[in-house]
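Milestone 3.1: sequence recovery, worked example.
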């Protein structure tokens, strides 16, 4: 029997896009895991509804760079060097996110590991293991950079987000998979997600896009007083 893992990342507050992705996922059979790879807030109007929807769907969530920045600001360890929208988002989330949800997202684990079958194992993180802000996760990076970042990992399927464009790159017996962005694609109003199909012997990676209602998302941004990234 073919089973499916759903991967998504970089919602960035786009609750409309996340709902569109989850509606598409609801139509799939044999979904064993839904995994979010970080950066759930910022720029879009989503707050508690992002967390609530993920919990409703039983999603496994890991922490992204934006969630870690919330921790850094809360600890007073930032140097005032983030761009202004980051500080706006921090204040907005403090004012609008339920305290239990704020505590939940800022204490998420930073990686997830799964065994799919006797041949394949998976590791997921936001950008690179131990570095949620790494920009080594783009398809245009030199092969040596990819090998230095991911080549020593024991797992043969390496999945991440952060860099908002999808890719699948074979690398020394591994597959590097960027599941792209649910919410930070302002130019096309499409939300990305990735499906890994697997059985007892093999896997397949399928990358999909689903349209969302940009007018509705813009309405929510205005209604909730969120600030778009300039």
């Amino acid at each position: 029997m073919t089973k499916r893992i759903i991967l998504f990342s970089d919602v960035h507050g786009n609750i409309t896009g996340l709902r569109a992705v989850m509606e598409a996922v609801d139509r799939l059979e044999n979904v064993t895991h839904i995994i979010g790879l970080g950066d759930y807030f910022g720029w879009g109007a989503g707050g508690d509804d992002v967390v609530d929807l993920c919990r409703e769907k039983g999603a496994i969530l890991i922490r992204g760079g934006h969630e870690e920045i919330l921790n850094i600001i809360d600890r007073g360890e930032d140097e005032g060097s983030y761009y202004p929208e980051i500080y706006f988002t921090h204040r907005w989330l403090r004012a609008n996110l339920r305290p239990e949800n704020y505590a939940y997202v800022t204490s998420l684990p930073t990686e997830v590991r799964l065994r799919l079958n006797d041949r394949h194992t998976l590791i997921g993180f936001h950008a690179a293991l131990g570095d949620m802000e790494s920009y080594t996760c783009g398809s245009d990076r030199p092969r040596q950079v990819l090998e230095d970042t991911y080549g020593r990992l024991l797992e043969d399927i390496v999945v991440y987000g952060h860099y908002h464009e999808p890719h699948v790159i074979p690398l020394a017996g591994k597959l590097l998979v960027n599941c792209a962005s649910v919410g930070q694609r302002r130019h096309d109003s499409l939300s990305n997600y990735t499906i890994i199909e697997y059985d007892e012997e093999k896997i397949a990676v399928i990358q999909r896009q689903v349209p969302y209602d940009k007018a509705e998302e813009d309405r929510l941004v205005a209604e909730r007083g969120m600030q778009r990234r300039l």
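The chain has seven helices and ten strands. Helices lie at 15-26, 48-56, 65-74, 84-96, 99-106, 143-150, 214-224.
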